[in-house]
Amino acid sequence: MKTIYLDNGATSWPKAPPVASAMLTFITDHAVNIGRGGYDRAYETAGLIDECRDKLGTFFGASNSRNVTFTLNVTHALNTLIAGLFTTDDHVLVSGMEHNAVMRPLTRLGIPYSIIPCNQEGKVQLEYIPSLVNRKTKAIIMTQASNVTGTIQPVQEAAFIAKQYGLLILIDAAQLPLSSTLSIHEDGLDAIAFTGHKSLLGPQGVGGLVLSDQLAHLLKPWACGGTGSKSDLLEMPEFLPDKFEAGTQNLPGIIGLSAALDYIQENKESIIKTEHSLTQSLLTYFLSDSRMQVVGPKNMVARTSVISVDLPSLDNAQFADALFLDAGIETRVGLHCAPIAHRTIGTFPRGTVRFSLGHATTEQEILTTIESCKRVLDTLHAE
């Protein structure tokens, strides 16, 4: 069955064209470990990993590429931040659109938090921050863009407020759109947690942290183990990136991400233009059909290519299933691992149907999706 993949908010697919071949070449020709062997191939492999680290350092405005540390995904990166910075005696602020990658670690560790309200489109209302700060407040944790509504948050403004109150500012960049840059240095951020398998078009299983110099010193490691350096010590090394890279990293994944970053560098403008145009087309249709409600921004000014819709008179899951049966349209329905966000926008517990376009989505696929939505809605409302 021919399908139309509109679930790029979960993971990009297909991956950037050079990814698979780069990973295959690495596994075939280079796949030895780094920091362990004193021979040429080990040094060559370490060089390849550092190339990716350098690219990410430039991409996210790190003061030094050694401040980029790899993890399995953005969830592990966020756990590293939360477990390594806060105790039950602290207090943090989170936006009302946070993913469970933030909310579950806070809950599990018993770290007190307050939720910064957001409006109906999922945009954080920064004016509430002063009233939520208390003497124990240590940080603001905020998603850069919502995985539910596609809302892009005012990160730079939040960072400015955080500094006024002496707070850390930690950003979940899982849904970072290529059209919206983040910079540790220029935006005054303390940490960016990123993943390689979404907008960066790399493989699953690789993500990481980009840290400010200050936070690199403050943050305690979450996982400890071998690094190939300072093996005489029973504590983790204090220098980066070793401090946060215990054990063998996903080297094939990092190599794949490196190839994806090269592809993005060469094609960034065309990817942004295509995604913007096709998202606009799909959004325009959704807004014109009264049988569904767009949840989130109604224009392209401050949104990603993630669009969520709710069907008040129908079962959202039934609609999503019918789209797949009608035209092979692959979406995601439900709460998207973000119940706090759905409570904020009023779609808990029913959730929404999420359409998320990507770099390989075509105009014909969007036209087919629109026609399928019309047919399915006609059929379901006639039943």
Describe the structure.
The chain is α/β, with parallel strands linked by helices. The chain has two domains: 4-13 and 268-382, Aspartate Aminotransferase, domain 1, CATH 3.90.1150; 19-261, Aspartate Aminotransferase, domain 2 (3-Layer(aba) Sandwich). It has eleven helices and 13 strands. It has helices spanning 19-29, 40-59, 74-85, 100-109, 129-132, 155-164, 213-218, 251-288, 316-327, 339-345, 363-382, and strands at residues 4-5, 68-71, 91-95, 113-116, 137-143, 168-172, 191-195, 207-211, 293-295, 306-310, 329-330, 332-334, 352-356. Helix 4 (100-109) links the parallel strand 3 and strand 4. Helix 1 runs antiparallel to helix 8 and helix 9 (316-327) packs across helix 11 (363-382). It is globular and about 75 Å long. The two termini are 26 Å apart. The model has no long low-confidence stretch (mean pLDDT 96).
CATH fold title of the largest domain: Aspartate Aminotransferase, domain 2
Report the mean per-residue pLDDT as an integer: 96
CATH class of the largest domain, please? Alpha Beta
Describe the sheet with the most strands: 7 strands, mixed
| Helical coverage, percent range | 25-40%
Total strands = 13
Which strand-content bin applies to the residues? 5-15%
* Strands ordered across the widest β-sheet: 2-8-7-6-5-3-4
